[in-house]
Amino acid sequence: MAFYLGLMSGTSVDAVDAVLARFDPGFELIATQSTPIPDALKQLILELAGGAEDSIDRLGRLDIALADLFADAANQLIDRQGIARSEIAAIGSHGQTIRHRPELGFTLQIGDPSRIAERTGIKTIADFRRRDMAAGGQGAPLVPAFHRSLFHSPDKDRVIINIGGMANLTSLPRDSQKATLGFDTGPGNVLMDEWINLHHSLPYDADGQWSASGQAIEPLLEKLLDEPFFRQPAPKSTGRELFSLQWLRQHLQTRTEKTRPEDVQTTLAELTARSICDAVNSLKLDSPELYICGGGAHNRDLMQRICTHANSPMVSSTSVLGLDPDWVEAVAFAWLAWRTDSGLNGNLPSVTGASGERILGAIYPA
Questions:
Q1: Which domains does the chain have, with CATH numbers?
Q2: Which end of the chain, N or C, is more open, meaning fewer C-beta atoms within 10 Å of its C-beta?
Q3: 359 and 346 in contact (C-beta within 8 Å)?
Q4: Residue 347, by phi and psi: left (phi above 0), alpha (psi -120 to 50) or beta?
């Protein structure tokens, strides 16, 4: 029974999540580890994602530095677990997204997989998104295929909601003849993280304490919700290219009233909750159960707001389904590596809009 190692760093740019798992004959999560991204490296990522000057040289240096960080995360997990490297069939590395422009036909994740393979001595599979995009898809989200394999229920309609920097959902109708759908719903934590960092130099709003202290500014919320992306039909995906601090500031500049920073934070929490629940309601499912994963699952205020707006008998984290919300995406990229290694498709055309099923990723031998 071969093991697969998954590496994931999302749009929140807070850590590299590493997992060790196996999928045949059944799923088993063996070990997990989270390696923080150093502040200096995080700043380089955000500068490059924002279009920094001298970007080609920056990209080259960052590609190497991130590969080393990913390799270190993998090596530490392997050494701690004491598993022989020969037992690990492959590493699935998502890389760090620095551009996602499906409207222009490209996406870019960095963290040189050749270097990861060299430093770990293990076959590495990476660059999962671009093959789907070449087939006319969005290249995202890719995790719904994994969600379907692990979380589908024949008895209940379910929606899996990942709240990272951006938020995305997977619709899992209990009727397996109905299509699995998935798409980005809009901002997850990204705007709240940037706003609290601007005002309090904190990386995130722990438990949503700051957002819980304010009052939502309804006129501002309605303006934010008027963003055309929210009305765009699926398939769709988004990123920091749209939902950024600059986008928020543009809306704040139109206000003549004085605004308290905490009220803006509350409004941003409402924006995430409302946009997620509006997207869920658009699915026309029968009282679906909602299961949250990603960092947003730990934000009590945000979870409460989702409970308030959701028309659902169940709002919980994926932990009740047997997988801790912190590790779902990293496990998904271990699963995608297994699919690629087995010659199986990793995308769902009903989710991404691709012209057909595709084997995803490029393989970098050990």
A1: 3-140+326-364 (3.30.420.40), 144-313 (3.30.420.40)
A2: N
A3: yes
A4: beta
> Would you state the pLDDT for residue 51?
65
Write the pLDDT tens digit of every residue in 12-37.
Answer: 888 999 999 999 989 999 999 999 99
Judge contact between 361 and 139, C-beta under 8 A. no
Peptide bond into 38 cis (omega under 30): no
Distances 124 to 4, 32, 128, 198 between C-alpha atoms, Å: 10, 18, 11, 37
Residues 283-296 pLDDT 10s: 989 899 999 999 99
Nearest to 61 by CA among 43, 78, 79: 43
Nearest-angstrom CA–CA distance, 316 and 160: 10
Neighbours of 13 (CB within 10 A): 23
- Cα 267 to the chain's mean position, in Å? 22
Element (H, E) at 331: helix 328-341
Q: Is the pTM of this model over 0.85?
A: yes
Q: What is the pLDDT confidence band of residue 54, given thresholds at 50, 70 and 90?
A: low
Is residue 319 very low, low, confident or very high in pLDDT (cuts 50, 70, 90)? very high
Helix (H) or strand (E) holding 63: helix 55-81
Which pair of structure tokens corresponds to residue 250?
């543009």
Question: ω into residue 25 within 30 of 0, thus cis?
Answer: yes
For residue 104, what is the DSSP state? Answer: G
- For 160-175, the pLDDT digits (tens) are 999 999 999 999 999 9
Cα–Cα dist 19/32, whole Å: 4
